[in-house]
């Protein structure tokens, strides 16, 4: 199914943050399978020479894409460090000449007592889940404006309250939900502002996904009861690829859910 998109993405350059594992890994591989050149970032690259590169590293993601129509370039970037994001965008333009797609996926979902969140926890998650996306857009948008086109996809969540019927309120997820709700507003605001330049800005919720990180954090009972989808390009990729192909002439300013792709949207 991914190869159906290869012609459309063969000359595209994409950036995916938080791409070493889970949802981000699936998105990076989906774009590479569709023919794109993908700059995949995470805090560290891992051992580039090991043929058995450890799962959960960018080195492993690069190896996983070796026989795909596109390819993956690994760049280390801590998205909580503004200079790292600036460097990521600048190096992508310098090495690839353009940026067509930006997927702001990096983030975390720690659990806190709703009435006991201290300032350091609050500031840290805002920096990771929200401000990093803004800085990446701020740095990438001028290149997209010069090209008069591009697609930005911010990865949101049901905890943002955007999707009725998805049980968006979860115990301990107040701060996480606030960051994702703010990310949704960042999406709709910038969709309007960047539309005259041909740039689409949308937010995509992957829904409940069985990632390695989720399973390591969840209790055995929750893992056993979980009915979420696996974090694979085949499952998560189609909705992301649809949004990645958009410009302002198509779908923009939308907050959408992967589980409803092909039913309620596009």
From TrEMBL:
It comes from the Bacteria. Keywords: Oxidoreductase. Belongs to the short-chain dehydrogenases/reductases (SDR) family. PANTHER family: 3-OXOACYL-[ACYL-CARRIER-PROTEIN] REDUCTASE, SHORT-CHAIN DEHYDROGENASES/REDUCTASES FAMILY MEMBER. InterPro entries: NAD(P)-bd_dom_sf, SDR_fam. GO terms for molecular function: oxidoreductase activity. Its EC number is 1.1.1.-. This is SDR family NAD(P)-dependent oxidoreductase. CDD domains: SDR_c (cd05233). It comes from Sphingobium tyrosinilyticum. It is an enzyme of class 1 (oxidoreductase).
């Amino acid at each position: 199914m991914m190869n159906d998109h290869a012609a459309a993405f063969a000359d595209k350059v994409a950036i995916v943050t938080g791409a070493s594992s889970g949802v981000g890994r699936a998105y990076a591989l989906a774009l590479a399978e569709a023919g794109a050149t993908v700059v995949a970032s995470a805090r560290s690259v891992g051992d580039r020479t090991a043929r058995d590169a450890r799962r959960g590293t960018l080195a492993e993601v690069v190896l996983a894409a070796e026989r795909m129509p596109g390819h993956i370039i690994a760049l280390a970037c801590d998205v909580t460090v503004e200079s790292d994001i600036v460097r990521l965008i600048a190096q992508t333009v310098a090495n690839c000449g353009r940026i067509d797609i930006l997927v702001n996926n990096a983030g975390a979902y720690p659990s806190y007592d709703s009435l006991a969140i201290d300032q350091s926890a609050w500031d840290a998650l805002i920096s990771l889940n929200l401000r990093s996306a803004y800085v990446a857009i701020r740095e990438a948008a001028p290149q997209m404006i010069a090209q008069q086109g591009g697609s930005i996809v911010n990865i949101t969540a049901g905890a943002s309250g955007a999707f009725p019927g998805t049980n968006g309120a979860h115990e301990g997820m107040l701060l996480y939900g606030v960051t994702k709700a703010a990310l949704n507003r960042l999406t709709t605001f910038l969709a309007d502002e960047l539309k005259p330049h041909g740039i689409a800005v949308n937010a995509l919720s992957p829904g409940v996904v069985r990632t390695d990180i989720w399973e390591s954090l969840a209790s055995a009972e929750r893992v056993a009861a979980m009915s979420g989808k696996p974090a694979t390009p085949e499952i998560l990729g189609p909705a992301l690829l649809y949004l990645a192909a958009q410009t302002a002439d198509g779908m923009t300013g939308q907050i959408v859910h992967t589980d409803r792709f092909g039913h309620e949207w596009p």
